[in-house]
Amino acid sequence: MSRERYLHEIRDPRQRAREAGKRTLLWLLLVGIAVTMIYPLLWTMGTSLKTTDPAHLAVEGSRSSIFPTHGSLIENLFPVVWHWENYLLIFQEIPFARYFFNSLFVAVCVTAGQLVSCSMAAYAFSRFQFRGRERLFFCYLATLMVPVSVTLIPTFILLSLLGLIDTYFALIVPGMFSVYGTFLLRQFFLGIPRELEEAAQIDGCGPVTIFWRIILPLSGPALATLGIFAFLGNWQSLLGPLIKVHSDELKPLPLGLLHFVDLNSANWPLLMAASLVSILPIIVIFLLGQRFFVSGVRLGGVKG
Amino acid sequence: MRVPAWITALFLGPNLLGFAVFTFLPLLASLVLAFYSWDLFGSPEFVGLRNFYELIGFQLSAKGGVEAVNPRFWYYVYNTLFLMLGLPVSIFGSLILAGLLNRRLYGRHFFRLIFFIPSIISGVGIFLLWKWIFQPDYGLLNHALAALGIDGPRWLESIRWAKPALMLMQFWAAVGGMNVVLYLAALQNINPELYEAAEVDGARWWHQFWQITWPMVSPTTFFILIMGIIHGFQGGFEAAYVMTRGGPAGATTTLGYYIYETGFAFFYMGRASAASWILFLLVLAMSWVNWKVSEKQVHY
Amino acid sequence: MKQWLMALLVACLSVACHRQTQEPTLVVLTPGGALGKATREVVEAFQADHPGVHVQLITSPGKDYYVKSLTMLAGRAHVDLLWLGQGFGLFAGRNALRDLQPLLDRDPDFSLGGYHPEVLEWYRYGKRLYGIPYGVDLQVIAYNRQLLEAAGVPPPRSDWKLSDMIGIARKVTQYDPRTGRPLVMGLGLESLDFRYYGLSLLSEDRRRFGLNREVGREWLHHHLSLIYDDRILQQRGSLESMDRLTGFLNQQVALFDLATWDLPEASKRALFEWGAVPIPLGRTGKRAAWASSSGFCMVARTRQPDLAWKLLKRLTGAEFQRRMLDRSIPTLVSLHEEFRAAHAPRNVDAFLETLNGMDPTPRIIPLQEVEAEWHHWMDRALLREITPEEALEQAESHINRILALYPLPDEEEEMP
Fold first, then answer.
1. In chain A, whose CA is at the least distance from the CA of B256?
2. What is the ipTM of this complex?
């Protein structure tokens, strides 16, 4: 917690020693958890460097097996020969760059759209007084509760009627009005003290000005958090794009990567290499956003 | 604040319009379908409440008592609820993890990234990796347990242990990730003076936790819990799809998987829609309770 | 800054609304992977021969293929041809497919003479022909030669019996005396197939459940004793799982039910010598192997039947079958030599031998529902939750009820 002092700030040597011991223990605990958290990632990396080429397999022996079993926990992670060329192959075997661009383009548009539409709606839900506000909001929230699989066909029919199947539009626009995002931001806005707005109102500012000049500048961390949520959610979505898009030119990564998956088998090394490359943007975004959003999203109370 | 109607419309309009067209219309269609029998190819036929009756109805049994028309559906409801028991544990775990990451420990930024990773790597590969970790004879988990002198259960192959196995996997995926991010942010917002005052009063750390930390992060907990309930009710689909196909003997079939299977494998789209509206009512009830309870509990 | 972002957003959206693909003449649905690749090549060749024809090939990954194709068909989207595997009865029985017989009769250049007659029969309902298969899928028993040699067992011969298989498994299975965990399992099968006992899932007329008989009970008891008493059978998850080969490749099981579609992976990734024999002869002295097929069908609502027929012929013809040689047995009998040659030096005769003695998946409308119901009760019996008698009893009553709900696909023929 922020009150915590650095070790060198502690004057009393005995207290410092005790504190150092405690922190080492906690640190070891963290390392322990981290190892279990990171194992699948290491496995993914190891697998991405293996090969399915029989000529190489013979040399590499049993270590080339993909799924680990007892006795192979660690050694299974390391290929004998490191096939870095897999990372080139993914660009040759499938239009990986195109999928990557699609994912990026769609995710950026959806994220931007969500930030705009959700922050406006969230502000209305948290501050404006109008009839049926709570009911409408609960109705919003309720739609999150119906499973996607039954709306797949209606969504498909709707988008076909609108002539939007197989367009970027179908991937982007429906994603821009997120209930989740509205909920998150509403909770945040509820936590912002009202005094600021009241003062501004007395100065003659309208709601638009207040939203633009006061609320949004205060909401940096919350918007960053929603940005990550939206980006991440979009980056991973599979079922939506599956039914909305036909052509290869429009497929986003999760759909495109499954080219490495056959009906009953998969090209594991290339699939894993492609998955690794495809999570890079998320890691970058996380690192960029970390300082920003950790510095404070305060999700306010429940009541309006 | 009181604003003219057009201002409300301006703020709410874009979202509401998009919501109405792209979320509400398909939902409405599935609600209508719930009262029809539709095999995806023919034309839907109105059957009234029959789909609901076939899922949650009761009938007189041969012995003269009352029995469920579809006992398996109730079992799937139970499975879904059972799997959600892991939710409080993982939320609590996230909070503890966030507490640890909030301390001035060496490399905490690095750890934050590491703990975020399980939520971003997903896909068939990871599910199959877990399947092999749980493999009873050769898998890593039972091997590790054997080293401790424990004869591990048959995990995904056993009716009793399949759900705990999936819960373990979900815990792994959910304990880090966005929840830690949200909690970290909430923790940073707590005024350090509160702790200092408590320390002066001689409160131990668990007192500090219950008296200060827990109430101060309660809005975040509320948010995470609501979203967790919503996802939990629909969850278990991918795991069932890739790892267990809902088995053994339906032990890992959640409502989400049942709805998918009924609609897309058995071609009862009407019944699948009805099931999802029953699911909807369940989630609604639970969220409502949570909402009401939170109004008293959540501090802000 | 904010204004720029807004402008960018508007620009992006206008790009997004733009449709770039021209209206296709024909639309073909297939799963992705190797199959999708082969289809793409054939479709491209077809387009080169038919200028002005624009074929849109929609590939979707593995299991999601059915979600995609069902959504498109249910949403009345434009689809002309689609790939179908063993589930094709589901579509045919619901009148989603077009009868190919009239097109066939009008086409002087095409004859079904070269096709394996039995497999073709699976696609025929009365006078109607609902699709043309390009490949047969079936299972044989693959054995790990090294593990067998280590146990001093000679490799099985193609006329072996169930008792031979169990005998080999007994000798090969090894448990770690210290931990009591298996080192090598003799049998790593999806299950001990009831077909070995001369049983069928459904009765002859496909109206009733077929396993609740004396032999069926015997089979299930035997199945249980192989798992719990002899401890030589490791039951492995479902048929379609993508990791099904792992146990065999890791040399943890000696005998494995290898399917045609496993051939590319098994021949590439196995680091030991293995051979294959047909499944053991059943109790009745005959062989009855699980079998299925893959082919292309025409959607009932197609607006271009003649053009679609031309493409369908290509997608099921010799050229396409050659492309799929590595993972399915061609339905054109004349290509069987090439199948053999394509896998040389490995001997794949076991697959070709099994062509005599196939027990195909039943062509009924509620196939998946019936299979799921059966697995439910079998799981419970194999986990010893209920007795085999109870399981068969329950499965019979549930499955018979499901079967009664649907007419048989070929019966509809007689209905007006």
1. A147
2. 0.87
